[in-house]
């Protein structure tokens, strides 16, 4: 009975991890002055182009404050492109 309970908890934990949104991947970062940073990120939109069967992506830009230790805070995110091919962004 204990092994069934452990298996159930493990499956529940895996389901919780798999249900989250896809990660945003940092593709470029540029410092703007001494305390600001510009970041470009790409994220899978979860959509597929029906004509080509290719996965589509979202492209966002962040402007953040940067502390002396490199930690970012107070980020402002802007969606630039939604559901596009990755090569159309660069």
Q: How would you describe this protein?
A:
This protein has 90 residues and is an alpha+beta fold. It has one helix at residues 2-18; strands at residues 25-31, 36-48, 55-66, 72-84. The protein has a four-stranded antiparallel sheet, with no helix packed on it.
* Count of DSSP strands: 4
Describe the main β-sheet briefly.
4 strands, antiparallel
Determine Rg (CA atoms, Å): 19 Å
Unreliable sequence segments: 5-16
Structural class: alpha+beta
Question: Main sheet: which strands, in order across?
Answer: 1-2-3-4
Order of helices and strands: HEEEE
The helix tally amounts to 1
Helical coverage, percent range? 10-25%
Distance between the termini: 55 Å
Q: What do the pLDDT scores average to?
A: 82
Strand content: over 45%
**Shape estimate:** elongated
Can you give me a brief rundown of this structure?
The protein is α+β, with helices and mostly antiparallel strands. 19% of the residues lie in helices and 50% in strands. The chain has a 4-stranded antiparallel beta sheet with strand order 1-2-3-4, with no helix packed on it.
């Amino acid at each position: 009975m204990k092994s069934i309970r452990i298996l159930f908890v493990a499956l529940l934990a895996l389901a919780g991890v798999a249900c989250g949104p896809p990660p945003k991947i940092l593709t470029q970062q540029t410092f703007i002055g001494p305390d600001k940073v510009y970041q470009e990120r790409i994220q899978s939109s979860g959509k597929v182009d029906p004509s080509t069967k290719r996965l589509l992506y979202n492209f966002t830009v962040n402007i953040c404050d940067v502390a002396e230790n490199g930690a970012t805070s107070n980020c402002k995110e802007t969606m630039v492109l939604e559901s596009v091919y990755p090569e159309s962004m660069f």
